[in-house]
Amino acid sequence: MEIVRTGRLVLRDLEEADCRAVHRYASDPEVIRYMDWGPNTEEETKKFVQRASEGQREQPRKNYELAIILKEDGQLIGGCSIHVSDSNNREGWIGYCLSRHFWRQGYATETAKALLRFGFDQLGLHRIFSLCDPENLASAHVLEKVGMEQEGRFRERKFRKGKWHDELSYAIIDYK
Predict the structure, then answer these.
(1) pLDDT in tens, 58-82
(2) Cα separation of 18 and 37, whole Å?
(3) Contact criterion met (CB below 8 Å) for 86 and 124
(4) Which CATH number applies to 2-127: 3.40.50.300, 3.40.630.30, 3.40.50.150, 3.20.20.105?
(5) What is the β-pairing status of strands 127-132 and 76-86?
(6) DSSP string, 3-46
(7) 142-163 per-position pLDDT tens digit
């Protein structure tokens, strides 16, 4: 199901037929360098897509794992998500991951803006945050570009791929 449409992209629910395209970026060590997961095996990618499909049926829905699709040709170029983490306080978080062939073309920024708009306008969130590895300068730039502000740095918060990593916390408030 289509969730959001932008100038160049469609963000829609992941489908089983997406496994091959998702696996292309989820198994690329360069793409997932700053992620807590991966590089994925084919089985891990298949299980991820299955879990995403199962999450589409939850009521009320709190988790949106989405495919990033180019409008012009229908190609899946990455994935993104928005999650309602605290319903009572109307808080959620976003994330995104793009195939490296589509880096530095504004797609991550367009995706993040669309997720924020969906979170505020459709999900009724008040605050949306995202966490970012301090070494992932491109992602930090995207978060700042869409109006998120760095709120802090969590020292050695994640044990990933054999060592401890800091995380930067970014957030934006809906001031309606």
Answers:
(1) 999 999 999 999 999 999 999 999 9
(2) 18
(3) no
(4) 3.40.630.30
(5) unpaired
(6) EEE-SSEEEEE--GGGHHHHHHHHT-TTTTTTSSS-SPPHHHHH
(7) 999 999 999 999 999 999 889 9
- Paired tokens of 172: 């934006």
Instruction: Quote the pTM value.
Output: 0.95
Kindly list the distances between the CA atom of residue 89 and the CA atoms of 92, 93, 125, in Å, as whole numbers in the listed order: 9, 13, 8
Helix intervals (H) in 56-162:
107-121, 137-145
Q: How far apart are CA 87 and CA 85, in angstroms?
A: 7
Alpha helices in 56-136 (DSSP H): 107-121
Whole-angstrom Cα distance, residue 176 to residue 173? 9
Query: Residue 10: what residue type?
Result: V
Under the banding of pLDDT at 50, 70 and 90, the label for residue 176 is: low
